[in-house]
Task: structure prediction
Amino acid sequence: KVDCFLHRKLDLVSSVLFILGTLKPIFSEKVLFLPTKREEDMKQRDSILAIMREPFAAGLDENLSPIMHHLWKLEGGAIYFCHNGWAHVTIDLKDYEIVPNTQLVLLPGTIIRINGSSSDFTASFFGFPKEMFREACLRFEPIFFRFIKEQPCYVLPEENTGAIRGLIRATTAIYNDRENRFRNQIAKNHLQSFML
Result:
């Protein structure tokens, strides 16, 4: 059971590293955690390089505690949706409280820090590289992105959460379907649909 937990934690860290593009800590001397010998062995088996080759990433009900308490600059972008619990985050030097039904849209270049969260905090996500974002949003006006940059968090009324839940579920299904040769195009269309 412990091996399964550590494997899941490393998968989550690898996914989060991909989601945020080539995740770069603002201060390079800070690290997520000091891996044990067992974790290093597992890390070699599930190489982060393999995850980084993925064109996008998605997941349901993830715990984001492995990336807490460090500043990160996103190379790519991400959409998060909080299901349970709460979290305090700093996005581009502004503090936000994430509660259930909060939709969080992080554009490429965003600086984020998760300052703390409840023990039951979970969120689903869809992470995408900068290139996919550019292709999906090519025809959008700059004022749209300015609005999203200034208002990255929005709490949806419960009756309006169906679309984001469906998008994340569908994108996660496409992410897990490694045999689908059109999965990148489908993910890009999901991103475009979300932005519309």
